[in-house]
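Today's session is about reading a structure prediction critically. Students often jump straight to the picture, but the first step is always the sequence itself: look for stretches that repeat, for charged clusters, for runs of hydrophobic residues. Only then move on to the predicted structure, which in these notes is written as discrete structure tokens rather than atom positions. Here is the chain we will use throughout the hour.
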Amino acid sequence: MGKKRLLAIIDYQNDFVCGSLGFSGAEKLDEGIAQRAQEYLAMGDPVLVTYDTHGENYLQTREGRTLPIPHCQPDTEGWRLYGKTQELISGTCCTGLLHPVCKTTFGIAPETLVALKKEIGDLDEILLVGLVSNMCVMANVCTLQAAWPEAQIIVDASLCASFDPALHEKTLDVMQGMQVQVINR
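Below is the predicted structure for this chain, in token form.
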């Protein structure tokens, strides 16, 4: 039997690509992320998609006080996934393979991770792609590593980005120091 793999697409949403927190270069990840998702789905491997999700009280939260830019409000264009990735995910009928998760902070909540682990089962490998490297990607590396401690955690550096390229590189260094396999750097 082959490896049990999971693709985790982290917050590849319009607000982080072309919206209120968008930055140059984020749009270039779209083709590669959509292609990876298509490969995983075609092989019958699960795909986790996280949605950064904030309510009207965002500016009163700790994150909102530190980053006072409203973003990723449910059912807005900014909350939706970007480009070809959105087309692929919204057009996928393999709903048993898709695991959408709304999260109100950088990382997936512990109770959600417990439910995901029951749904998905054991994993040998978890590949993370998406935005923002030094925030939500990093946080989810930690949460997924805690939930699946025996899985090899992999980050595709060519399919992650940050508004700060130097911080992106430093984050990749830190991830490698945490025994994460960073590929395509």
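Discussion point for the tutorial: The helical segments are 14-17, 30-42, 62-66, 83-90, 110-120, 133-147, 165-177.
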